[in-house]
């Protein structure tokens, strides 16, 4: 099945690249390394180490995932839109592979439950979990497995982006909000400002699912687009490299990370390690826009913190 939709890697006639697809060979390995480096002495050390193990398992799964079928693009929608891609069963094998690899690292109570869930779950159950995650429904009794479901879907969608490397994608789709990923239509985990080369100082939103990055101007609310009522919050210990961009127009915030101040930053890892910033901004009356699937947890996992 061919993707006949054009991908325009520039948002305009400028040389600024609009879309950056993930480097799938190193994506999860870099995340695992960053999580391990952030863990020592951290208040959430055990949980960061566990998530480093999950990221390492994702790296192994990415290397072994079977070739996924190329989805057919739906006109007017992103090429890998979560609402139109028919999932290949390969993602289920990724879930089981990741779970097998990390089960020995998880807290005992959670590990036992995880093995029970997967040993009794049918293919239909797994698809229901996946759909619940993609729909943003985190209210079910199986929320504890959601970080691993999300990890598996991240591997699957990142693998799909390999098929777009040489295929032109439109920077904008009619009616598609700029706050959602132009590749898969998922919300961002946050944003980063790049350092070096052609993207020095440019801000990119980072997809929480496929890990693609898309350009958005700085000092503009990711949620509502306002640029007049934006302010920034920070915490000690980050040297200004990680901030919360808060908007008084819609009372929403997203995190922004500056690689020119810390080239080692990794969006999901550093987000997880700076929950004190989320608490600070939340107490100031702002709600978060975006998603970090590493934060979906329950008491068994939280106890590891």
TrEMBL record:
Stored Gene3D superfamilies: FdhE-like domain
Gene Ontology biological process terms from the UniProt entry: protein maturation
Domain FdhE C-terminal: 219-295
Record key words, sorted: Cytoplasm
GO cellular component, one term: cytosol
UniProt keyword Kinase present: no
Domain FdhE N-terminal: 16-166
Keyword Cytoplasm recorded: yes
InterPro entries: FdhE-like_sf, FdhE_C, FdhE_central, FdhE_N, Formate_DH_accessory
NCBIfam families: FdhE
PANTHER family given in the database record: PROTEIN FDHE
HAMAP family in UniProt: FdeH
Protein name in the entry: Protein FdhE
Species name: mine drainage metagenome
Gene assigned in the entry: fdhE
């Amino acid at each position: 099945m061919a993707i006949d939709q054009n991908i325009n890697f520039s948002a305009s006639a400028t040389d600024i690249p609009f879309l950056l697809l993930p480097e799938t060979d190193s994506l999860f390995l870099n995340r695992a390394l960053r999580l391990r480096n952030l863990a020592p002495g951290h208040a959430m050390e055990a949980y960061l180490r566990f998530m480093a193990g999950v990221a390492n398992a994702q790296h192994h799964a990415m290397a072994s995932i079977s070739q996924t079928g190329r989805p057919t693009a739906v006109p007017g929608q992103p090429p890998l839109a979560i609402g139109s891609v028919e999932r290949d069963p390969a993602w289920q094998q990724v879930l089981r592979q990741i779970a097998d690899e990390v089960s020995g690292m998880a807290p005992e109570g959670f590990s036992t439950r995880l093995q029970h869930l997967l040993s009794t779950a049918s293919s239909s159950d797994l698809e229901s979990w996946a759909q619940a995650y993609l729909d943003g429904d985190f209210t079910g009794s199986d929320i504890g497995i959601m970080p691993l479901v999300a990890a598996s879907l991240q591997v699957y969608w990142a693998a799909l982006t390999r098929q777009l490397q040489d295929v032109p994608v439109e920077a904008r789709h009619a009616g598609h909000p700029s706050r959602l990923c132009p590749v898969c239509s998922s919300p961002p985990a946050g944003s980063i400002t790049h350092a070096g080369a052609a993207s020095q100082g440019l801000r990119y939103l980072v997809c929480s699912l496929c890990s693609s990055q898309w350009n958005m101007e700085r000092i503009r609310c990711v949620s509502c687009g306002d640029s007049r009522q934006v302010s920034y919050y920070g915490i000690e210990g980050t040297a200004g490299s990680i901030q919360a961009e808060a908007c008084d127009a819609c009372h929403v915030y997203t995190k922004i990370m500056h690689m020119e101040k810390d080239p080692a930053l990794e969006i999901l890892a550093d987000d997880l390690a700076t929950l004190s910033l989320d608490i600070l901004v939340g107490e100031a009356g702002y709600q978060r826009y975006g998603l970090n699937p590493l934060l979906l947890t329950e008491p068994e996992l939280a106890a590891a913190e």
